[in-house]
Amino acid sequence: MKLDRKEILTALETISVAGEGKNMVESGAVQNVMTFGNEVVVDVTLQTPAMHIKKRTETDITNLIHEKFSADVKVKVNIKVEAPEKPEIKGKSIPGISNIIAVSSGKGGVGKSTVTANLAVTLATMGFKVGVLDADIYGPSMPIMFDVEKSRPISVEVDGKSKMKPILSYGVELLSIGFFTSPDQAVIWRGPMASKALNQMIFDADWGELDFLLLDLPPGTGDIHLSLMQSLPITGAVVVSTPQAVALADAKKGVSMFMAESINVPVLGIIENMAYFTPAELPENKYYIFGQEGAKNLAQDLEVPFLGEVPIVQSIREAGDYGRPAALQVDSPVGEAFVQIARNVVEQVVRRNESLPPTEAVKITTMAGCSPSKK
Predict the structure, then answer these.
(1) Helical segments of the chain, H only
(2) Is the pTM of this model over 0.85?
(3) Whose CA is closest to 111, among 327, 265, 298, 336?
(4) What single string gives the DSSP state of each residue in 50-93?
(5) Nearest residue to 233 (alpha-carbon basis) of 97, 135, 53
(6) What share of the chain is helix, strand, coil (3-state, %, to 5)?
(7) pLDDT averaged over 10-residue windows placed end to end, the chain, 375 residues
């Protein structure tokens, strides 16, 4: 059959590059289309070198041409990457901190704080310098999980200024509102007060040199989330969910918040917690109590990386209650799960930093910045 270049271009207008709204032709991704008998060559320029984006683009173009024209057509896709220049970070950065990762969940009860604590100690045991800011003002749990409930940050002088010294536990620098309130005291603050307290823990602390600062965010998509993204240039976000539909619906909203045009924080991926139950005496058996691979399927649907899964194991709960994160259990299924997740997080951070400019702190100038996301 005779292949027409214009017909192919028209067909390519029906698909888009993953993560972009416009179609491949309108966005300028398709640079040229050439036909040679039964062969089609498509030249594409992408803004990101991410391997899964490149592979998805090549697959989409090939499948489209085979479907619209003929399965016998030979398709060659030449992909060139032209990443945008990295501008200077705007907003108030923290000297010495290389990457700030927000750990979020659409709803409570999915184990976000447990995942944050175990991810932090795993990164620390891998040799990274790690800090955790417990941003869950109304339900701080990090002091319990790191066995430092009775600890209190001391004041140190840095460059002539008084700073809070984070509490060091298991190689992780830690700050939480829980250090400044009694265990039975409820924090009854409006949004502005909570945001002010967080800003003090962020900017009035002597964090030192950190490879990663993990922000353990409260559930939902509320005022504290927006305040932090206005205050900090966040490198990327990790969303934690369980497999069942109720949790996935809220996790989808969490991803949508970060992807919203007014926020625009890269989503590093989704972690599936409580993926399956494994009895200690039968480690090979898996019981999918909350459903199977729900978060993994959501990651595929939203075209964001799937970072790994954590089983329901009694030792995780016990370790959190006793203040010794389960990821410290070397050569255990739990420890291995968090090592794999940590490696995937690091890989996504490296890819993000190579392919995207630094995230700017969000600037809200109108109420449009607070409107529901359409994504």
Answers:
(1) 5-12, 51-68, 112-125, 142-145, 191-203, 223-231, 245-259, 294-302, 314-322, 333-355
(2) no
(3) 327
(4) -HHHHHHHHHHHHHHHHHHT-TT-EEEEEEEE-PPP-PPPPS--
(5) 97
(6) 35, 25, 40
(7) 83 80 81 87 82 83 89 88 54 79 82 91 93 81 87 85 90 87 65 73 87 86 69 86 84 81 82 84 82 85 89 81 82 85 92 77 45 43
